[in-house]
Amino acid sequence: MDPRAFNDEDGSFRRHYNTVTSLTAAFLCLCSRAVLVTCDNCKRSFRGQTCYDNHLQSLCQKIRRCEECFKVVQSDRKQTCGEIYCKICRKHALADHLCYMQPDVGKPKSEDLLFCFYDLETRQEKQLEDGSYLHEPNLCVFKQCCDTCLNTTNQICKKCGVRLQVLRCNDPISRFMEFILGQRKIFKQVVVVAHNGQAFDHQFILNYILTATDLNPDLIMRGTKIIMMSLGNVKFLDSLNYFPLSLSKLPQAFGLGAGFKKGYLPYLFNTTANTNYVGPLPPVEYYDPDNMKEDDRIKFLEWYEQNKTNTFDMQKDLVAYCISDVEILTAACLKFRQQMIETGNVCPFTEACTIASTCNKVYRRNFLQPNTIGIIPKGGYRWRDNQSKVAIQWLVWMEKEQNINIVCTAKQQEARVAGVKVDGYCAETNQVFEFHGCYYHGCPACFKNGRDEPLRDDPTQTLNTRYEATVAKTERLRDLGHHLIQIWECEFRRQLQQNAFCSYVENHPLLVNAPLNPRDAFFGGRTGNTYEYYKCMDGEKIKYVDVCSLYPWVCKYGKFPTGHPKVYVGEECPPTINNVEGLIKCKILPPQNLYHPILPAKMNNKLMFVLCRTCGEKMNQGKCHHHTEEERALTGTWVIDEVKKALEMGYRMLKVHEVWSYEIDQFDKATKKGGLFTAMMNRFVAVKQQASGWPQHCRTDEEKNRYIEEFLEREDVKLEFAEIVENPGLRSLAKLILNSFWGKLGQRENQPKTAIVRTPAEFFNMLSNPAICVTAALPVNEDVLIVNYEHRDESYDPLTTVNVTIAAYVTTQARLKLYSYLEKLGDRVLYYDTDSVIYVSREGEWDVPTGSCLGEMTDELEGYGAGSHIKEFVSGGPKNYAYKFFAAKDNEEKVTCKVKGISLNYAASQLVNFDTIKEMILSPTEPVYITSKNIRRTKEHEVVTREETKIYKPLSTKRCFLDDHSSYPYGHKRCRTE
Fold it and tell me: Phi and psi of 247, rounded to 5°?
């Protein structure tokens, strides 16, 4: 910026003091830098008499600088040093205070609300250069429901107009958007819903916005999928994010009745040439039956055979099919919404965008007690006062270079000089060390633009006010007689790249033993195969059991941390963890004789359970030659309960780096009190059980009352006699809430974001914005960019709905529950997956007991009749297995096959099935190539069908597998020789 732009006619610089937020000119002022004039009133310093005189005319009355903390504040506001406005707590508090998740006091609103449910049908005739076919909508059907007609069946509403509308033309998207944008002027909020809209329907909307309008939507994306898109008061949502079921399954799941049933459409027949076709049903291949699941294909072929002589009218039947889909979607969503409001006092569509966020709000609105769940600070508890890793690197190097001891927070010692917090201090030499993080201190070299813009993490501050406070603080320290040593972050990072001390600081104990990161303790479910192939011998059966409602059981009966932890580091850590609850970062040595290791570790992009770290990292299928503790030991962060179990099973603790010790809340079965999530689980367990109706054996009132008493005794949940009525929709809702509730607690913070940019100025502002980092920019056309960006670590706000420690407790207790069965079954286990076990049952040996209560094992094959069992099992790795089983009810042999990453439709199942997997394992052959046509999204948000080929090959790499297809964990002393 040219300083002359601020000159008045008389050559002064009065204008740059006209407003509180316009401080740029103060730093561009051409007054002498050598002479500073301090104002006794506002305590700020100026670079000459002219600037000082000018500021008296306006700025002095508006802002001042605090003499104690150097912060620039508005003069008419009360200033408390060290205090900020906390967005989480929604009040002023000390800058280093600890926050808590806040109860939600809102309620769902229906006033001036419009829902619009829509579906598209597309042609795919236009072939692109890469051989894919572009989808082009030629039909849009939508149904609207407003606060006036929400619960009626009227075809015309006085407020929103014709409710069901059909747009049949070559460009239905523009007409649909014209209608939606018109409705947003009538209603305060418009919610537009499509099933699988994130991957299909909404893509056409976004592409239209990008190429045919000047609108700038707010986007929440996952890759190219649209989780939510907002245009002012219009919100586009995907019902699939609330109930992950295909549209054809919604009528049964929500009990919509026989009138709602998804039909069949020859969508490949939807071409320009066939627009006015009337005649027999199109040939069967236009329905693409080979892309259906095998059972669905059989049903379709039966339907086709029965209806092949019927007349097919392309215009009429296409519209009827689309209307049917919209009616199903509308009925399911409105029923889901009504039941969610009645049971949880939350509207899922206006107050959330996924089932996880909906359930989290239900908990916060109905069950969360104040000051219960702590919000973990951005940098954890040790480095939460903005002293970053790079700052510690500099202080460590200063210690070595000057051979002194520097007091700093990385050593758990707060450094203060004359009441002012500093980064480091050496009392013996009277040296003060200040590391200026470029963003926190407003580096004028790194951030030359937007210096007067309010900062995202603290709108009361700008880069200029931060820089001014930094200068004032350093001058104060010098005035007090301290020897000040300071450096800017950008300068030190350059030194790190150029100097040899980089290796020293990286390997210093303070840096190697970086603060515990609670997300490192958040592992998923335990999944893997211990056998590649097993066939029952005489006296054996293979059983398949899974835990009934594993995660709801954990949430109801499990233990959970509350509040904020006490942090212990190094020698401060408790000598034993027997009576400690929380998280631990440690180095631990596994035994060499454990068939099922306990502690999880992330290696090779997999969740592994190993006895030797080096073997696991190298996926060594040979003999373990690693004998030293350093080669075999694991260093990681875990929930302490998992480490306690590991020590019980022979693991040996080598070193404890850090412990977060929490107070614990758990349901007490004796007193019926406690439990962080017990009340919520109980409510929806009751809803689910009541909506399941009466069991078949309950015919008389006496039997029904006995059933209620027994359920109360088993689950500590009181069922209401009059509420026990079969209701599939309510049961589905309760099941969704029970299983989806805890996920939001573990959500990753500071996720990538997407913006639509239409002018060079907008793009420049993003590039120069100190709070964000642009990661990618994709040109859509000459006028539009799609820009991906992230907030810098210093500027993002912690999510008010997240506590990853609690999420880690959920998955840990789930793994320990599964392990309680693995431990007893030993090498009889063939396969396990989160909440299920496939194992060999032999007469005279312990069998897994089954039941029907929360946390009890159930028989997965029970639906095929008592006595059903697996006879032959094969597995090509985690989530990759097949088995032949005897179905007692039908008295016949059946086959099940599941392979993650491959949609086993009819065509694919001819290539990948029990027999092919078995053959590939018993006599290794070439991989199988599966070619299919799939609907995909482009970066420009066009939808195409392209031919893709996947390669299938069994791959069991989580354990060391032997020639007989059994296995041992990596590092086990019985692993085979090479």
Answer: -60, -35
Q: What is the pLDDT of residue 564?
A: 97
Q: What is the pLDDT of residues 326-354, one digit of tens each?
A: 999 999 999 999 999 999 999 999 999 99
Closest C-alpha among 196, 142, 118 to residue 937: 196
Question: In this model, does residue 7 exceed pLDDT 90?
Answer: no
- For tokens 């995660």, what's the residue? 551
Q: What are the DSSP E strand ranges found in 45-175?
A: 45-46, 63-65, 72-74, 83-86, 91-94, 99-100, 113-127, 133-146, 156-157, 161-162, 164-168
In the predicted model, what is the mean pLDDT of residues 843-853? 93
Q: State the burial class of residue 571 (Cβ atoms within 10 Å of its Cβ: 0-12, 13-18, 19+).
A: exposed
Tokens of 848: 């897994």
Dihedral pair phi/psi, residue 902, rounded to 5°: -125, 125
Q: What is the CATH number of domain 113-360?
A: 3.30.420.10
Among residues of the chain, what percentage have pLDDT more than 70?
Answer: 92
Dihedral in degrees, nearest 10, Cα atoms 284, 288, 289, 294: 180
Question: Tokens in use for 893?
Answer: 């042999």
The amino acid present at 165, given as its one-letter code, is Q
DSSP letter at 600 equals -
Q: Is residue 177 helix, strand or coil?
A: helix
Average pLDDT, the chain: 89
For residues 607-641, one letter each, b for 16 or more C-beta atoms within 10 angstroms of the residue's C-beta and e for the rest, the string is bbbbbbbbbbeebbbeebebeeeeebbbebbbbbb
Q: According to the model, what pLDDT value does residue 2 have?
A: 35
CATH number for 389-514 (one of 3.40.960.10, 3.40.50.2000, 2.60.40.1940, 3.30.565.10): it is 3.40.960.10
Tokens 């799941």 correspond to 253
Does the structure show a pLDDT above 60 at 977?
A: no
**Could you please report the per-residue DSSP string of 910-957?**
TTSSHHHHHHHHHS--PPEEEEEEEEEE-TTS-EEEEEEEEEE-----
- Residues with Cβ < 8 Å from 65, sequence gap 6 or more? 42, 43, 44, 71, 72, 73, 468, 469, 472
Phi/psi for 610 (5° steps) reads -125, 160
pLDDT in tens, 768-784: 888 889 999 999 988 99
Residue 976 pLDDT more than 50? Answer: no
Category of 481 on φ-ψ map: left (φ > 0), alpha (ψ -120 to 50) or beta? left
Report the distance separating Cα 709 and Cα 506, nearest Å: 63
- The predicted model gives 34-60 an average pLDDT of 70
Residue corresponding to tokens 């039947």: 317
d(CA 494, CA 443): 15
Locate the domains of the chain by residue range: 3-97, 113-360, 389-514, 753-791
Which pLDDT belongs to residue 374? 96
Coil, strand or helix: which one is 395?
helix
Which residue in this structure is represented by tokens 């649909």? 176
Give, as one character, the DSSP assignment of residue 110.
Answer: -
- Please say if the pLDDT value at position 323 is more than 50: yes
| Residue 121, pLDDT above cutoff 70 | yes
Would you state the structure tokens that stand for residue 21, as one six-digit string?
């937020």
Q: Do 113-360 and 389-514 agree at the fold level? A: no
What's the whole-model pTM score?
A: 0.87
Residue from 554, 551, 546, 558 nearest 850 by CA: 546
